[in-house]
Structures are given as structure tokens and as C-alpha cells.
Amino acid sequence: MQRPEAWPRPHPGEGATAAQAGGPAPPAGAGEPSGLRLQEPSLYTIKAVFILDNDGRRLLAKYYDDTFPSMKEQMVFEKNVFNKTSRTESEIAFFGGMTIVYKSSIDLFLYVVGSSHENELMLMSVLTCLFESLSHMLRKNVEKRWLLENMDGAFLVLDEIVDGGVILESDPQQVIQKVNFRADDSSLTEQSVTQVLQSAKEQIKWSLLK
Q: Which residue range or ranges hold the AP complex mu/sigma subunit domain (predicted)?
């Protein structure tokens, strides 16, 4: 699956070079502090997605940047987020310079993490898509026991929604269709391998009988 191209950025010094060469002057405001300019749009909006049980233990997690490079740092972050959110009715939290949207279901807590300037509605669309896709896959039993028994499918669902921090899909029906297609394709591949092995066994058997 190809990842969308990031937004192009001008090479440092391009404006100065153009001015020296008699080209167009850099746009007004180019010398302003970066804090005064609008932030450049980015496709890489998701920092992490994780699912915890009702004791704050990790069941599923994917991190898409190096904010928390080690497993230990990730686990500490998840525990802190759980402690901050598990007893509140809100669906949005701001923690450690990040925006976090979350949802609870029976004995699970689902989290989507973005940067502090990220659009909460965008993050919420990912969370809703994840929950509804899992609900469809687990036949509305979005709880720990069923999730653990279908973990491969849960990772497939997540990979169809987010890839490398880029949001690919926010429609749960589209996600389920793609997951089913990949599952069917995998099943056909396994079946083809089985058929090849069976055919090879038959050929060996007949060659020995000759």
C-alpha cells in the first residue's frame, strides 16, 4: 500500500538565493518568527493508537513516530493516560503536549493520540472508525475476551485505518470490506500452498509405486 506524499517544503535558503539572482523576493512575512505563521498542513496526524483493558494493561498498540522510542516509555505513557482518563466522562484529554481522544467499551479503553495542534474531530473520526470496525468484526462484542481471540483481525483493521501515522480511511464499511478481501486473499494463498503440497505428495507416491 503506497503512502501519500508529504507536503513539499522549500529548501532552506531558496528565498535568499532567488533574491541574489534577481528572482522574485520571498513572500511577505517570511522573516517572521515561526510561531506567528500558520502551521504547515501535514498528512502525518496520528502519533499512536492503543487499546488497554480496565486495569490499564496494554492489549494492542501502535506508535507512528519516535516520541516514545522505547517500550518502557510507551508503557509509562499509556499508564499515565489511563490514570488521567479512566474515571472521567470526557472523550478528549490534553496530556504531555498531546491531544488524546478515547472511548470505553465494557472492559476496554480505546485511545487515539495526536499532537497538541491536531484537529480533535479528525482524531475522533479515526477513533469512531476503529470502534465501529471492531464492533462489526467482533459482532458487537467489543470486549477483552473477544479482542484477544481476534487480535490478528484487530491489527488488520488498524492497518487499514492508519498507516505510518497517515489516516487512510475513516469509513468502517470500507475498512471491513478491505479486511475481508485481505483475509480471503490470505485464505486462498494458504489453500494454494496446501494444494501444491498435496499434489507433490501424490507425485512422489506414484513415482515410488512405478
A: 45-182
